[in-house]
């Protein structure tokens, strides 16, 4: 379980951490680690995909709300990995599980 938990925690560190966690989980496939890898990968890719257009709004209120929203999603997922829970992040977690089901 410790190896699986380590892979889940590494997945939330950066987008590169998510890729590293995929390789860490490749040898001993764990549903717990795979769950958190899908969540983290979804959070990071959505952040990057939406962050670029949000930057063009030129409004600190919109940008701040965007960053706070994704920071809360990240904290929610990261704390779930630390506590050994498989709870989807609010609003988009189930979508990430379906979209990244091959990971």
List keywords for this structure.
membrane; Putative membrane protein; elongated; 0% strand; transmembrane helix; 103 residues; transmembrane; mainly alpha; 5 helices
Structure commentary:
It is found in: Membrane. The chain crosses the membrane at residues 6-23, 35-54, 60-79. This is Putative membrane protein. Its main location: membrane. The protein is mostly helical. It has one domain (1-100). It has 5 helices and no strands. The two termini are 18 Å apart.
Short structural description:
By secondary structure, the chain is mainly α.
* DSSP E strands, number: 0
Shape assignment: elongated
Total count of domains: 1
Average pLDDT across residues? 89
Q: Could you estimate the helical fraction of the residues in percent?
A: over 70%
How widely separated are the two ends?
18 Å
Poorly predicted spans: none
Strand content: under 5%
Structure class: mainly alpha
Question: Mind summarizing the main beta sheet?
Answer: none
With helices defined by DSSP (H or I, 4 residues minimum), what is the helix count? Answer: 5
Q: Rg to the nearest angstrom?
A: 14 Å
Order of helices and strands: HHHHH
Main location: membrane
Membrane topology: Multi-pass membrane protein
Transmembrane segments: 6-23, 35-54, 60-79
Organism: Flavobacterium lacus
């Amino acid at each position: 379980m410790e190896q699986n938990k380590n892979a889940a925690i590494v997945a939330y560190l950066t987008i590169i951490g998510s890729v590293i966690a995929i390789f860490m989980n490749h040898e001993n496939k764990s549903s717990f680690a795979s769950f958190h890898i899908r969540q983290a990968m979804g959070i990071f890719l959505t952040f990057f995909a939406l962050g670029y257009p949000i930057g063009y709004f030129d409004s600190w209120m919109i940008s701040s709300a965007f960053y706070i929203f994704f920071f809360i999603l990240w904290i929610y997922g990261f704390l779930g990995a630390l506590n050994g829970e498989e709870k989807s992040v609010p609003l988009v977690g189930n979508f990430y599980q379906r979209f990244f089901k091959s990971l």
